[in-house]
Design a protein that fits this description.
There is one protein chain. The mean pLDDT is 92. The protein folds into two domains: 4-120, Probable inorganic polyphosphate/atp-NAD kinase, domain 1 (Rossmann fold); 131-299, Tumour Suppressor Smad4, CATH 2.60.200.40. The chain is built from nine helices and 15 strands. Helix 2 runs parallel beside helix 6 (110-119) and helix 7 crosses helix 8. It has helices at residues 12-15, 18-32, 46-56, 68-78, 99-103, 110-119, 148-156, 164-178, 236-248, and strands spanning 4-8, 36-40, 61-66, 88-93, 122-132, 137-140, 143-147, 184-189, 192-204, 226-232, 257-262, 264-269, 275-277, 280-283, 291-304. Helix content is 30%, strand content 33%. The protein starts with a strand and ends in a 5-residue tail after the last strand. The protein is an alpha+beta fold. The protein is globular, with a radius of gyration of 19 Å.
Length: 309
Amino acid sequence: MAKTLIILNPNADVGHAWRRIADLRPLAEELAGGDLAWAGTVYPTHATRLAEQAATQGFERVVAVGGDGTVHEVVNGLMRVPEAQRPILGVVPLGSGNDFAYGVGLPSDPHQALRLALTAPPRPVDVMRAEDEHGRVEFIDNTLGIGFDAIVTIRSHQLPLVRGFAMYLTAVLQTIAFNHHAPHFRLEVDGEVWEDDLLMLVVGNGPREGGGFMTTPGARPDDGLLHYMAVGNLSRATMLRLVPKVMNGSHTSCQRVRMGTFQNLRLQADRPLQIHMDGEIFAGFDTHVQQLTIQVVPQALQVAAPLTP
């Protein structure tokens, strides 16, 4: 068994994950034995530091136990070290959305996912790299959202009494009611330039975000491409009708919805943007980001997963 570090976030799933983590320990010890170490996160970005340290300390496998935010932090830690030095990534989904786990074909049952995380052979997975005009760089394993869905993410963090998909759906309805605006964008997508007023721009390395919204249903995390969904300036009523279509992925042919793929994208907006990356807020209401460069990093990580969602 490879030398493995399990990084766990007891506060995942709005603080409910810690109750389930203890149940996983016997199976982990059975599968990994003395080659296993544990580390818990105690502050934001702690998982990034732990993952980077694990890579430099010779761990061959790093397992993220938590939600999409935990996976995001671990991925950013692994991407800080040279490719040849990066451990295999395992994931045990214990969060509210678990969208990366879905995209790489992991089961929702934590015990089944843990078994795969510790024993499955690795598969290559792409990540995306994003950089703003201030030089801030972040790596994204699943989705990046600008505008509407970023505001949904911000609002979902303010709903501690609601969990899972219901939390995201409640935030969607709030955003339609109170944050309905469409900045003007100039985009250069693999050399093609176009402009539009957009309520929402989602870039997907995987097909799903928010625990059940199939924003980029054709995206696969191992195809060397990033997929996007751009939603134009729709009325509130039309946006409300669009939501169930996004939930089942049937929005791709809707009017004012533009779908596509790319390897490199540059964008500029006429006002500060709200941006989330894997459900983590990159730019909120109090930040000033109007430009972003996004590119795919093919086969950047080795992930212990079947990759058959």
